[in-house]
Write a structure and sequence with these properties.
The complex is a heterodimer of chains A (93) and B (301). Chain A has a single domain, classed as Multidrug-efflux Transporter Regulator, Chain: A, Domain 2, CATH 1.10.1660.10. Chain A contains four helices and no strands. Chain A has 93 residues and is mostly helical. Chain A is 70% helix and 0% strand. Chain B is of the alpha+beta class. Chain B folds into three domains: 4-85, DnaJ domain (Helix Hairpins, Orthogonal Bundle), CATH 1.10.287; 125-194, Sandwich (HSP40/DNAj peptide-binding domain), CATH 2.60.260.20; 200-274, Sandwich (HSP40/DNAj peptide-binding domain), CATH 2.60.260.20. Helices cover 32% and strands 22% of the residues of chain B. Chain B is built from twelve helices and eleven strands. In chain B, a hairpin with a 5-residue loop joins strand 2 (144-149) and strand 3. Classes of the chains: A mainly alpha (93), B alpha+beta (301). Chains A and B meet through helix 2, helix 3 and helix 4 of A and helix 2, helix 5, helix 7 and strand 4 of B.
Chain lengths: 93, 301
């Protein structure tokens, strides 16, 4: 689902000012092709993760930066592993 | 549903602070997004989060302790975690391959397998392509339309939103490399570099400008034209203005994301005529008050 800024704020349970800050930090990267920003379900899920980190786990802003970067790398690695598995299947055929 | 105190591993008598501490400790270990490969983590996390929803709230905890509500009310509604999306095949803006980039670059069987796996995907989303775009300061404030020439000779029209900051990344969805099968194209990610300006500097939403004024404008005051990124405006310089005097042009700064605008600050700088002027010299040498004034007196006292 693609949503505009207002819908996103409601879905993610965020204040406008918080969102501005997160965008500034590039923790969230919405689609800016059109005149207004477009957000996806993935952005909502990512916003929930940031919220959990900050409000439940007591992580500060610098910590969020580091964690997001590492989590994204971890997913990259998991994909690579997945590809490797597919590649191996291909060779054994 | 287990007893929420058991779930958090605390005694029913502990303080609210201890409950939070116990929750944080468990949640940090179990959060599905911090355990993307652990399927069981999600169930465990939900149980812990549900228990905390109940016990972390003083009112609900009291009602639970009094037997007015049971633990079933604490179950969390279905939630989508970030990992559900990050693991998807379609590619996404947050994908980061830097964790293994050194492996794929290598020239060995392992790297070849990685590359082959990538190619073998039937519905593979195209890669995101990264570009750099330098723009003038004035365009970053006013907004602009730019055409980016790509290495392959194609072009990309980029709309610069007003108030853009240096280093901001613009995403053009679907303008990246083409995908395979049902996988759509990737995105173009354009990192915009705002070139420094000779006149203007930016601090947050405010813009500063140093403006030379003549001696007569400083002494007698007057209306002068001031450049702003959106065009010249007229500003009144009061009588007796000095070098370093800062004037504010309200609303002439950068647009704010939430609406409204910053201000432009104009710092005056008195500049004497380039070639020595005999009339001015004659006046100053006969100007006793001017000679008696020591501008350094203030700073030493």
């Amino acid at each position: 689902m693609i949503m505009n800024k207002q819908e996103f704020l409601t879905r993610a349970g965020l204040q406008v000012r918080t969102l501005e800050f997160w965008l500034e930090q590039q923790w969230l990267i919405p689609d800016e092709t059109a005149a207004e920003m477009n957000f996806s379900d993935m952005d909502v899920a990512r916003a929930h993760l940031i919220r959990d980190l900050k409000s439940d786990f007591g992580v500060n802003d610098e910590g969020v930066d580091v964690i997001l970067h590492l989590v994204d790398q971890l997913h990259g690695l998991r994909r690579a592993l997945d590809q490797l598995q597919e590649g191996l299947r291909g060779t054994s055929r | 549903m287990r007893n929420p105190y058991e779930v958090l591993g605390v005694a029913p008598t502990v303080s609210a602070a201890d409950i939070q501490k116990a929750y944080r400790k468990l949640a940090k270990k179990l959060h599905p997004d911090l355990n993307p490969g652990d399927k069981a983590a999600e169930e465990k996390f939900k149980e812990v989060a549900g228990a905390y929803d109940l016990l972390g709230d003083a009112e609900k905890r009291k009602r639970f302790d009094n037997g007015e509500i049971d633990a079933a009310g604490a179950e969390r509604p279905q939630q989508h975690f970030y990992r559900d999306f990050a693991a998807s095949d379609d590619g996404h803006p947050y994908a980061d391959s830097s964790g293994y980039a050194d492996f794929t670059d290598a020239d060995d069987a392992f790297a070849e397998l990685l590359r082959r796996g990538e190619r073998a995907r039937a519905n593979r989303r195209g890669r995101d392509l990264h570009y750099q775009l330098p723009i003038d300061f004035v365009d970053s404030i006013k907004g602009a339309s730019k055409r980016l020439t790509l290495p392959d000779g194609g072009t990309l029209d980029v709309t610069i939103p007003p108030g853009l900051v240096d280093g901001q990344i613009l995403r053009l969805r679907g303008k990246g490399a083409p995908g395979a099968g049902k996988g759509g194209p990737g995105d173009a990610l354009i990192e915009v570099e705002v070139l420094p300006d000779k006149r203007f500097t930016r601090d947050g939403d405010d813009i500063s400008l140093e403006l030379p004024i003549s001696l007569s404008e400083a002494v007698l005051g007057g209306r002068i034209r001031v450049p702003t990124p959106t065009g010249d405006v007229t500003m009144a310089v009061p009588k007796g203005s000095n070098t370093g005097t800062i004037m504010r042009l309200k609303g002439k700064g950068a647009p704010r994301r939430g609406g409204g605008q910053g201000d432009q600050f104009v710092k005056l700088k008195i500049v004497l005529p380039k070639s020595p002027d005999t009339e001015l010299e004659a006046f100053v040498s006969n100007w006793d008050k001017g000679k008696a004034f020591n501008p350094r007196e203030d700073s030493t006292s």
